[in-house]
Design brief:
Length: about 140
């Protein structure tokens, strides 16, 4: 029996949506996303039922989303860290579709000029003061 409100998709590591942040500063890696929630991985301990504010980059730009921890569990143990996976349920839907994050064909087809290098500086690179300071 399917209980999800929306279909979910795997988030590519190079998408803006792949990296989110708690309002308190902890980093979140988004693994899967739908318009009503995300599956994340973090070193921050998450407690089911806890309400969080998460900074997410969507097609509309960076936004602060209020969510609830639906479930959380220990995913991986390392010598210096504990990694958790958790499901965050959003209070309001967001646009998490893959097409929302692709560049438009117009921008992708525009030619880009090569970057110009800085002019070479002559001299030793020391700062020379022309005036003497007087007390």
């Amino acid at each position: 029996m399917e209980r999800r409100r929306a279909t979910r998709r795997t988030v590519a590591a190079d998408e803006p949506l792949a990296h989110a942040k708690l309002r308190t500063g902890a980093q979140l890696i988004v693994l899967e996303a739908s318009s009503w929630g995300v599956l994340i991985e973090t070193t921050e301990r998450l407690l089911p039922g806890r309400h969080l504010d998460v900074h997410i980059v969507t097609s509309g730009g960076r936004m602060l989303v209020r969510c609830r921890v639906a479930r959380a569990y220990v995913w991986r143990l390392e010598v210096d860290a504990i990694y958790y996976r958790g499901a965050l349920a959003f209070e309001q839907p967001i646009d998490a579709s893959a097409r929302a994050f692709t560049q438009s064909s117009v921008l992708a087809s525009m030619p880009t000029a090569p970057a110009e290098s800085y002019a070479e500086r002559s001299g030793q690179g020391d700062i020379v003061f022309d005036e003497r300071l007087t007390a």
